[in-house]
Amino acid sequence: MTGTDACLWEFIGTALLLLLGNGVCALVNLRTFGAKGSDWIVIALGWGLGVFVGASVADPTGGHLNPAVTVMLAVNGDLDWGLVPFYFLGQILGAMLGAFLAWAAFKQLFDANNYDDAGNVTGANKDTGGIFFTSPAHPHNGWNAVTEFIATTVLLMFIAFGPAGGELGPLSYFGVAFVVVAVGLSLGTPTGYAINPVRDLGPRLMYAFVLPIKDKGSAQWNYAWVPVVAPLLSAVAVGLLSIAL
């Protein structure tokens, strides 16, 4: 596999993941949508199914869609380090495109979200950042990083030691999708369970600098390092553990 191939397939797969993942967050949170107020299980299922769709399409590269998966497989020797930058590039650009497509799909609802039923401006869009990026329930970033590390480790342990044995493929994508759902349901609410650096950073960049949403709130850059650093630390730890075992 060439670097160009790796970049292209990871770009397409990650874009699909973020389109569906940000999409399910939009339909649960936007004021005028029929699914407004659906519970957390809808979000967890949406993200899990998004992983299955994106990874299945990106099967030629192993369907990583996540720099933590890529680093873990490079650390334990299952992926050539020379391909890692191409994986990363495709993943971050795909995440940004997916966020844009999610906004485009819900554009009219984002516009309507700025008004109440009487047509008065509400400024409700200040809460729309959470549709695109994660934010913690409590502001202690050290403990938030611990949560993200633990949650990411659950995912990576399944990939490294589960039925796939470090080799992702069409059937194992079902399992990975269910693990993402399980992590979301069991560990997701303290931090929003990014468990994937580009899943958080790509949409955060798009929300902060590109998407034309009125009355946007803060991009919460003081927290943005947590969903990037903690999953990558978990990737190194699981990669080394898989070598030792």
UniProtKB/TrEMBL annotation:
Transmembrane segments: none annotated. Pfam families: MIP (PF00230). SUPFAM superfamilies: Aquaporin-like. Its main location: membrane. Keywords: Membrane, Transmembrane, Transmembrane helix, Transport. It is found in: Membrane. GO terms for cellular component: plasma membrane. GO terms for molecular function: glycerol channel activity. The keyword Transport applies. It comes from the Bacteria. InterPro entries: Aquaporin-like, MIP, MIP/Aquaporin. It is a multi-pass membrane protein. Belongs to the MIP/aquaporin (TC 1.A.8) family. This is Permease, glycerol uptake facilitator. It comes from Corynebacterium camporealensis. The gene is glpF.
